[in-house]
Design goal:
about 40% helix
């Protein structure tokens, strides 16, 4: 068993493709775990699922994995985003969802070493990728979280 797996997080919003891929490469990320609910119709063309998978491999030799079970439900997301809901309610609902789904059992912790959770928000403060990383850190021993900004 390895010591202190590092989990990275990144959002692609407000980044050019050049900045996005450079930051991942510089952080020595080995796999990107896409945890968006909708990964097909994004504003940034490089972040669409099939394009992203290609660019990550071709430019950075980074593996791409899609894990929609690490995303909020459409109802939870819309209550917060579209209806301008309260972040603390979103956070509670999403935490309960992760516990219900037992996401820490869906993936071995060593698969997260040098992995980067991907979402769209430019900062982790009000993004579910931070919540996923912190939830996993609480479930697994010695996890280090690094947010790539």
């Amino acid at each position: 068993m390895m010591s202190n797996p590092k989990i990275y997080t990144i959002g692609f919003t407000k980044k050019t493709a050049e900045q996005f891929f450079f930051k991942l490469k510089k952080a020595d990320v080995k796999r990107v775990i896409d945890i968006r609910l909708n990964n097909k119709s994004q504003l940034a063309g490089f972040a669409k699922q099939n394009d992203l998978k290609y660019f990550l491999k071709a430019l950075c030799d980074i593996e791409y994995i899609y894990k929609p079970e690490f995303a909020p439900t459409k109802a939870i997301l819309e209550a917060y985003k579209k209806n301008k809901g309260d972040w603390s309610i979103y956070e509670q609902q999403f935490l309960a969802l992760m516990q219900q789904r037992k996401i820490e059992q869906k993936f071995k912790s060593d698969r997260f070493h040098q992995a980067c959770l991907l979402c769209s928000e430019d900062t982790p403060k009000h993004c579910h990728r931070r919540l996923v990383a912190e939830y996993l850190r609480d479930k697994w021993e010695g996890v280090e979280i690094r947010h790539i900004l």
